[in-house]
Amino acid sequence: MSHDNLPVKDPDLGHSVPNPGLEEHVERYTDANEAAGNRAYAAVVGMLAAVPLLAIAFLVVYFAVPNDLLLDVRFGEVHFLTANAQNFWLGLTSGLAVLLIGLALIQWARVIMGDEESVEMRHSAASSEEDRAVFVEEWEAGAKQSGLGRRKLIGGALAGALGFAVLPAVVLLADMGPWPTRSKRAETIERTIWAEGVKLVNDETWRPIRPEHLEIGQLVNAQPENLKQFHGSAFQVEKAKSSLVIVRMDPESIKIPDSRKDWHVSGILAYSKICTHVGCPISLWERQTHHLLCPCHQSTFDLGNSGVVVFGPAARSLPQLPIKVSSDGYLVAQSDFTVPVGPSYFERDSSEDFKDGDQ
Amino acid sequence: MKFLSKRRKHSAAKPLLLVLALLAVGLGYSFVAPQQTSAETEMTQQIEEGKALFDVSCSSCHGLNGEGTTQGPSLIGVGAASVDFQMGTGRMPAARPEVQIPARPVIYSQEQIDAVAAYVASLGTGPEVPQEDQYSPEGLTAEEVAQGGALFRANCSACHGIVGGGGALPNGKYAPSLFETEDVHIWEAMRTGPQQMPVFSKDVLHDEDVRKIIGFIDAQQDAPTYGGQPIGSNGPVSEGFWIFIVGIGGLIIVGGWIAKKGARAR
Amino acid sequence: MARPTTIGDASPVIEPAVAPTTKRNPAAPALKWGDDRVGLGKISRFALRKVFPDHWSFLLGEIALYSFIILLLTGVFLTIWFKPSMAEIEYDGTYQLLKGIPVSEAFASTLHISFDVRGGLLVRQIHHWAALLFVAAAFVHMLRVFFTGAYRKPREVNWLVGIGLMALSTIAGFAGYSLPDDLLSGTGLRFADGLIRSIPIIGTWAEFFVFGGEFPGELIIARLYMVHILLVPGLLLGLVSLHLALVVYHKHTQFPGAGRTENNVVGYPVFPVYAAKAGGFFFVVFGFSVLLGGLVQINPVWLYGPYDPAKVTAGSQPDWYMGWLEGAVRIMPGWETHVLGTTWSWNVFLPGVGLMGLLFTLLGLWPFVERWLTGDTREHHLLQRPRNAPTRTAFGVAGMVCFALFLIAGGNDIVATRFGLSLNAITVALRVLVFLGPVIAFIVTKRICLGLQRKDRERVLHGSETGIIQRSPGGGYSEPHLPIHENEKFLLTQHVQRQPLEVSPDTDENGVRISQEVSSTRARLSRWYLGHDVPKPTAAEIAEADHHGEDGHELEGQAEHQALEDRQPEPAND
């Protein structure tokens, strides 16, 4: 191939020392010493020969080792590893088998195959002047043949047609989810199943809660009793919004603003468990500081002060659920949350949400 | 009745009655009192012993009568369970005031701890040290242990981590690891809410629920790491660390070997 | 037809007599078949002996490629059992600690693969390890390309393809991580939900479209499954092919050295050496993944339990490649602004969506920015030693430090518990450090690079130190230096000394205003970018230094001393 299309014309530009040229090829030890060469050869063949053995060992493990057998590697009292024996031995045998193939191939290339370096010339990606000229010529001939020069509208029409043809394809995706219009938002992310008289029940055990069950410093992870009516994904969707943390604090030691003085039952307060940052459920509550920490991003809320943010990336207070005692003595909700739970979203102005110092 | 009323005025009646009465009292006393006395004295003795220990080890922070000082909270009404937990895990007596008092080797015998517990319990009623059947996971079915897992994830894992390895709390505090914690201490911690930990009272989480949770914690810790070396059970953090150190690091070493020119003849 | 009794001289039927004497290649018929149909010969003529240079850092991209192949293989196996469904069932498999617990089909089938399919756990763990390896190797490979300037002309397009691969691989990873529907990945999905929701204007719409309504809905696992096993792998496969095709077309870059020029490539031919090495390395990477899968536990979803939107665990982290975003979100202050009845959640959007966009934009623009700064239009096939591009190297290290600090922030709770530090203190410190750290790293790295340049210069001019102290008859002490090998001298001086751009005139020779090619701002930036290099020794300087050396080693020390004195009055060259 001709060398007139090299990437750079002046490869020696700025060299203070001339390029000494390729180093002289020196034979390897394994080339010069026959015994060493034979040892290398034996090593490569040996590695490959071990592979079938390992493969057979794999088969034996697969069929002979029961799935529930445990491996217990220990030294005296110290257990190094207790693992599923089948997994361990399957991994070890097949892993070593594959690894040995690789090592053998590489060793073959390193010490047995000829190791004289080759030199290949590069070629600029750029086309030659001639090629470019021919291209321009052919392009022009083609353009002329197409008639676009005289009937220009075809080009514009084609572009427009193609552009509009994309529209149906895009519109097809419009049903990926319901549209969060104002009314849709009101019936989805802006409400939960909490309502007047809904009992607060313990998560998992579904037991309703009486105020006297709670001691000062107590935390209860709670759900609305009517959540039980939901199943499958509807259950998950509602649970993702309605989860509560109920805490009891000494009323003397906390700040309760006037607007919320009827929201608690003698120091028992209920807050949304869903972080206002990105929506993780929070229940790391410190009984002495009254701080609630989110394990995901460490937003910290003060439950002794209407759930305001005291640290971290969250911007909004944790919504508080107004609660009361029902006639039969259980904790029930007074209403739904007064603001949507979970992360902020674009369409709602959250500047009116409760902030530290509000009354 | 006639028999009695006829002889009521007999001259020997009064002395006889006295003797009978004395006998009855004596007998009655012999039935009830001796046991009562020994139990009471034992109790008083234990409380006194506890009080003595308390004065030496606890009162500097919690006050001479457990009323609390600026250094330590009041112990009136915290109950014996609280003392059994705090001293049984070596948290109390604390070496120095800290953000959070860590668990340390236990320096008191169980009798001494019981004595202090008895004394503190005498200051005001609180949760008692549980009987074994209240916390022991003996006899739970597989489903019940699994339910314990659900309860654990609902109530405990947020702070103590999914395998109970512990987790961070604000400002240098932490939820401790549960790996070494004894069953009874888990029960006591839930009921008494030590330090920053909230209380889980017996009316909300019944002893039955706590037993399930303890059963799950025990079972999970006894369970093998099925997949192999657990690399600290720190989840994706240690996995990412490993892939760079062992994965990329190891393969770069192999890469260096591939590209390196081997031994030359001269 | 009558059998011929004799064979005429003109008859060509003589082959059978010749054939046994030459050794026939047993593959020949197959090769001929292939050649006749697709022209194998023409293709192979160039392909077989194509030369690839040898260097360990050129294998980083291969690790990524091979892990991708491992992912395809193991992924197919996993799809045989995995059910991408969020339908609720009661778990009734082998794993006792979840017996009777309501779980999704996706979670149950993951447990089924882990506990009831023989070798299933192994393949699942290989798949996850290979996924981490894939992204990690791609990342390290990108760093290699960056620090050696391998993205320069003519390889800018391939750099962009690489950026696309990087982005796609993280998406593939995140989607795959979410599929088992366990508590940890579900928490990750909830984070993704919040992230999408925070996008100004379209956030809520995007959220509803992605999840098919409210979080979590019933579709997201199935949709992510499609993304994970069809959409993204398809795109990855296409881009990987393009990436490789361009590497073959441009031929691989090489490090400078004796005999290496911009116009050649020195190394080993594909057939057989490179094929054996690269093929062997595939098996090594595979072996590593299998051993990790067999011996080291990864993502034990059975411990995490099924996803439940009311449950969470301390120490919730994403896989490492999402960790830096997680970190940024953690240390961001809670900023939210309100405009005309709307809420702009900067606290989530900026660190989450914004930072990711910023990183990929910067990476994508970098080759063009650098070209604008240097005005360099040459083709480059020889790699740069990082010290010879100090500002770029400093940028790269600053970026890595920033990334690392974000990553640490992503595990701030683990750091707090493992090292007994305060969570809040770490967070506050990192808020400052993510800005300060890169600046310090930049300055330090640039100093180090310039120092290394100076060292190279010294080494070329004065040779290497012998460590022998000699006392001259006059009582002076000196250390003789040994001249270095010609090859090393060449290596240390072969780079082109880059000159900053000069301001070009903004008027033509007739005084008419023309559009200025190099504005004063561009020239200033160019000076900042290139202007601090230590001048490399010129041929004349080297000749003079060699001359000194020939006079005798004992003079070397004096010469150096003199040289040092000579240099003293000069202002620092940076």
UniProtKB/TrEMBL annotation, chain A:
Keywords: 2Fe-2S, Cell membrane, Disulfide bond, Electron transport, Iron, Iron-sulfur, Membrane, Metal-binding, Oxidoreductase, Respiratory chain, Transmembrane, Transmembrane helix, Transport. InterPro entries: QcrA_N (IPR045603), Rieske_2Fe-2S (IPR017941), Rieske_2Fe-2S_sf (IPR036922), Rieske_Fe-S_prot (IPR014349), Rieske_Fe-S_prot_C (IPR005805). Iron-sulfur subunit of the cytochrome bc1 complex, an essential component of the respiratory electron transport chain required for ATP synthesis. The bc1 complex catalyzes the oxidation of menaquinol and the reduction of cytochrome c in the respiratory chain. The bc1 complex operates through a Q-cycle mechanism that couples electron transfer to generation of the proton gradient that drives ATP synthesis. GO terms for molecular function: 2 iron, 2 sulfur cluster binding; metal ion binding; monooxygenase activity; oxidoreductase activity, acting on paired donors, with incorporation or reduction of molecular oxygen. This is Cytochrome bc1 complex Rieske iron-sulfur subunit. It comes from the Bacteria. GO terms for cellular component: plasma membrane. It is a multi-pass membrane protein. The chain crosses the membrane at residues 40-65, 85-106, 153-174. Residues 1-13 have a biased composition (Basic and acidic residues). Belongs to the Rieske iron-sulfur protein family. Residues 1-20 are annotated as: Disordered. Residues 268-332 form the Rieske domain. PROSITE patterns: RIESKE. It is found in: Cell membrane. Its cofactor is [2Fe-2S] cluster. Its main location: membrane.
TrEMBL record, chain B:
This is Cytochrome bc1 complex cytochrome c subunit. It is a multi-pass membrane protein. PANTHER family: CBB3-TYPE CYTOCHROME C OXIDASE SUBUNIT FIXP, CYTOCHROME BC1 COMPLEX CYTOCHROME C SUBUNIT. The chain crosses the membrane at residues 240-259. It comes from the Bacteria. Keywords: Cell membrane, Electron transport, Heme, Iron, Membrane, Metal-binding, Repeat, Respiratory chain, Translocase, Transmembrane, Transmembrane helix, Transport. Heme c 1 binds at residues 58, 61-62. One of its GO terms (molecular function) is iron ion binding. Residues 45-124, 143-221 form the Cytochrome c domain. The cytochrome bc1 complex is composed of a cytochrome b (QcrB), the Rieske iron-sulfur protein (QcrA) and a diheme cytochrome c (QcrC) subunit. The keyword Repeat applies. GO terms for cellular component: plasma membrane. Binds 2 heme c groups covalently per subunit.
From TrEMBL, chain C:
Residues 544-574 have a biased composition (Basic and acidic residues). The chain crosses the membrane at residues 58-82, 126-147, 159-179, 225-249, 270-296, 348-369, 389-409, 421-445. The keyword Protease does not apply. One of its GO terms (biological process) is respiratory electron transport chain. PROSITE patterns: CYTB_NTER. Its cofactor is heme. Gene3D superfamilies: Cytochrome Bc1 Complex, Chain C (1.20.810.10). One of its GO terms (molecular function) is oxidoreductase activity. It catalyses: a quinol + 2 Fe(III)-[cytochrome c](out) = a quinone + 2 Fe(II)-[cytochrome c](out) + 2 H(+)(out). It is a multi-pass membrane protein. Its EC number is 7.1.1.8. Residues 30-256 form the Cytochrome b/b6 N-terminal region profile domain. GO terms for cellular component: plasma membrane. Its main location: membrane. It is found in: Cell membrane. This is Cytochrome bc1 complex cytochrome b subunit.
